[in-house]
Automatic annotation (TrEMBL), chain A:
GO annotation terms (biological process): amino acid transport
Organism: Desulforamulus reducens (strain ATCC BAA-1160 / DSM 100696 / MI-1) (Desulfotomaculum reducens)
Domain Leucine-binding protein residue range list: 38-384
UniProt name for this protein: Amino acid/amide ABC transporter substrate-binding protein, HAAT family
Signal peptide start and end residues: 1-18
Automatic annotation (TrEMBL), chain B:
Subcellular location: Cell membrane
Stored InterPro entries: ABC_BtuC-like, ABC_transp_permease, BCAA_transport_permease
Source taxon at top rank: Bacteria
A Pfam family annotated for this UniProt entry: BPD_transp_2
Alphabetic keyword roster: Amino-acid transport, Cell inner membrane, Cell membrane, Membrane, Transmembrane, Transmembrane helix, Transport
Tagged with keyword Transmembrane: yes
Listed name of the protein: Amino acid/amide ABC transporter membrane protein 1, HAAT family
Family: Belongs to the binding-protein-dependent transport system permease family. LivHM subfamily.
Gene Ontology biological process terms, A to Z: D-alanine transmembrane transport; L-alanine transport; L-isoleucine import across plasma membrane
GO cellular component: plasma membrane
Originating organism: Desulforamulus reducens (strain ATCC BAA-1160 / DSM 100696 / MI-1)
TM region positions: 12-35, 42-59, 93-114, 143-160, 192-215, 227-256, 268-286
Gene Ontology MF term list: L-isoleucine transmembrane transporter activity; L-leucine transmembrane transporter activity; L-phenylalanine transmembrane transporter activity; L-valine transmembrane transporter activity
């Protein structure tokens, strides 16, 4: 029987090796370091893998703004070059990408990554090299604040609101609008983002007199959720909170409806993807709600203009991540303008002092923890379409 | 009680997938004593072929299933000829390492070909829910999975026990050299075994695509390992054992997530593997039955 164990060990070793090898690949062509007429901004984004739609939308949004800026003559007399690399939705790969962008391509700042976990995968590299990074949608609290020392991370910023806010918003919505008294949490066990949201939802929901009747977890690569969902159905909650990314969420909602769960599923901005209705099916998503950074349907001239431009260029309605990518580009260009010499150090300081920068998801200023002060929207899914429900101020 | 039966239904649908994949493991092991770790990836290729047929060619369910089964049967034979046959007389560890290599090749080759993104199947079978005894829900997809699994298993039993090729398979698995002396073409028999095992895995892949509606290039890893556990559980090399092992594993997983904690499910499967290896190394069905295929 020893053979089987040896086998298993061998298999594990090989699989890990494969991970490493595939991690080192990527980007065949050599890119020259910046010439004097260019300011190079790095993009460390999820262009493939389980959250590929996030990174792709961000890349589109940011590229659109950089093109506008270049067409208008650039910043500080130089053109902006946006150098985007794919981190394959993987934290280790994100670190590789960041190392390359910073040490080889000499970028002055890095945009990315889309998820908290991947951002945390490379922020040490950025901090060590003193290059500021700004994540468009990494919402976990500890992205900008070190949980051990409670100190803000000098070189890390974000364009989105934070998990506590998002969790609390959904708990309020569940209690006040849906009149929910009981809830079940069903959480992605490998994502700091999901765990953070669940924690703050739970605290806030309990504080308002609600009761958490069950807490379950899943692995993001799971296919079958029916057994656990059957158990959840038996607990008879008023709402089910599933903070996770769109791929497992799609399967969970689909399978939940299949076994006859009719109560609302709630979630966070990780739900926002055109893939979600594809996986779950439009009808299954009825009676589900999630918190988000913006709605393309909100009646606001800034948003309308942005949606029109984006649609003309990419042929689709921009999702939240496109808007956050655009906003991140706005923040970066604004900071470069005020930095005067476009050095990473000065850009970092300029970012920290950003005040009322007009962007799509609101007028952005950073608080002392490098978090922008802004509100959230709640969206309802109706036949596979997002419908704007309400806007919540912090 | 109702929850118990609901979990039983969940477990059986999951288990039939494991059983279909486990059959391929067990047959290949029975005939060439090779644990074909690339088998889970053939299942993934099958799922992609099903996706190709339904989403791109616009075929309906049964033609897509047949296409995937036929192409994967050919793929299985090609893999056997290119990767395993040259090593048939080498130490077994060489063949095993090759199997792992083939597995990685299929995973990352597929990733190169179709991108690592998730793909979603079109709605080839519209969803119908049936209510049994009040609250028990069973969907038409679950029924279809079970029916197709059972039909394929019966077909396999027929092939193995009633046809000349089946007889040859049993003879080769019993004693390769003696079979050869009796005029059996061993190479053809082995190819045939790979073809059948691979087509069953492909069927499982298409069923999973239809059932869960999302596929990706690394989807074969976990079910492949689970099917391996199922094959060992039933007694590797024994066909009824693989079926029983697959169903049993699916049901155990459903019960563990239903009554225990959802995260204990995967550990439970591998604890079963360890316990079986220690207590009943020959598997549940492996006592006196020496007939293998």
């Amino acid at each position: 029987m020893k053979k089987h164990f040896r086998l298993a060990a061998l298999l594990v070793a090989l699989v890990m090796l494969a991970g490493l090898v595939s991690g080192c690949g990527g980007g065949g062509e050599e890119k020259k370091a910046a010439d004097a007429n260019e300011i190079v901004i790095g993009g460390n984004l999820e262009l493939s893998g389980p959250v590929a739609t996030f990174g792709t939308a961000m890349k589109n949004g940011a590229e659109m703004y950089f093109e506008e800026v270049n067409a208008a003559g650039g910043v500080l007399g130089k053109k902006i070059k946006f150098n985007v690399m794919d981190n394959k939705s993987d934290a280790t790969e994100a670190a590789n990408v960041a190392t390359r962008l910073i040490t080889q391509d000499k970028v002055v700042a890095v945009m990315g990554a889309a998820t908290s976990g991947n951002t945390m995968g490379f922020m040490q590299v950025a901090t060590d090299n003193k290059v500021p990074i700004i994540t468009p949608s990494g919402t976990a609290l500890e992205v900008t604040v070190d949980p051990n020392t409670k100190k803000v991370r000098d070189y890390v910023f974000r364009t989105c609101f934070i998990d506590p806010f998002q969790g609390i918003v959904m708990a309020n919505f569940a209690t006040n609008d849906l009149k929910a008294k009981t809830a079940v949490l069903y959480v992605d066990n490998q994502s700091p983002y999901a765990k953070g949201l669940a924690q703050f939802f739970k605290d806030s929901f309990i504080k308002q007199g609600g009761k958490i009747v069950g807490e379950e977890a899943f692995m993001p690569e799971d296919q079958d959720f029916k057994a656990t969902l059957t158990k959840i159905k038996g607990l008879n909650p008023d709402v089910i909170y599933v903070p996770a990314y769109y791929e497992p969420v799609g399967k969970i909602v689909k399978q939940g409806r299949e076994i006859g769960i009719t109560v609302p599923f709630l979630g966070g901005d990780g739900w926002d993807s055109p893939k979600l209705p594809e996986i779950a099916g439009g009808a299954a998503l009825n009676n589900t709600y999630f918190s988000n950074h913006y709605s393309s349907q909100k009646d606001d001239p800034e948003i309308k203009g942005f949606v029109e431009k984006y649609q003309a260029k990419f042929g689709q309605v921009p999702d939240t991540f496109a808007a956050l990518g655009y906003d991140t580009a706005v923040l970066l260009v604004d900071a470069i303008k005020r930095s005067e010499d476009a050095s990473p150090e000065k850009i970092k300081e300029a970012l920290a002092n950003a005040k009322d920068v007009q962007a799509i998801t609101g007028k952005l200023s950073f608080d002392e923890n490098h978090n922008p002060i802004k509100g959230a929207v709640i969206l309802e899914m109706k036949d596979g379409k997002q419908v704007y429900k309400t806007y919540v101020q912090p | 009680m109702e929850v118990f039966f609901q979990q039983l239904i969940n477990g059986i649908s999951l288990g039939s997938i494991y059983a279909l994949i486990a059959l391929g493991y067990t047959m290949v092991y029975g005939i060439v004593q090779l644990i074909n770790f690339a088998h889970g990836d053939i299942y993934m290729v099958g799922a992609y072929l099903g996706f190709f047929a339904t989403a791109i060619l616009g075929w309906s369910f049964i033609p897509a299933l047949l296409l995937a089964m036929i192409v994967c049967a050919i793929l299985g034979v090609v893999i056997e000829k290119l990767a395993y046959k040259p090593l048939r007389n080498s130490p077994r560890i060489a063949a095993l390492i090759t199997a792992i290599g083939v597995s990685l090749f299929l995973e990352y080759g597929m990733m190169l070909l179709v991108k690592p993104d998730v793909r979603t199947f079109p709605q080839v079978l519209s969803e119908v829910q049936y209510k049994l005894f009040g609250n028990l829900v069973i969907t038409n997809r679950q029924i279809i999975i079970l029916v197709i699994t059972v039909v394929l298993m019966l077909l396999l039993q027929y092939i193995v026990h009633k046809t000349r090729m089946g007889k040859a398979m049993r003879a080769v698995s019993y004693d390769k050299q003696a079979a050869q002396l009796m005029g059996i073409n061993v190479n053809n028999t082995i190819s045939f075994t790979f073809a059948i095992g691979s087509s069953l895995a492909a069927a499982a892949g298409v069923l999973v695509g239809i059932y869960y509606n999302a596929i990706n290039p690394l989807m074969g890893i976990m079910p492949g390992l689970k099917a391996f556990v199922a094959a060992v559980l039933g007694g590797i090399g024994i066909i009824p054992g693989a079926m029983a092992g697959g169903f049993l594993l699916g049901i155990v997983e459903a019960m563990v997530s239903g009554y225990g904690k959802s995260l204990y499910r995967d550990p439970a499967a591998f604890i079963i593997l360890i316990i079986i290896l220690i207590v009943l190394p020959a598997g549940l069905f492996g006592k006196n039955v020496r007939e293998k295929v």
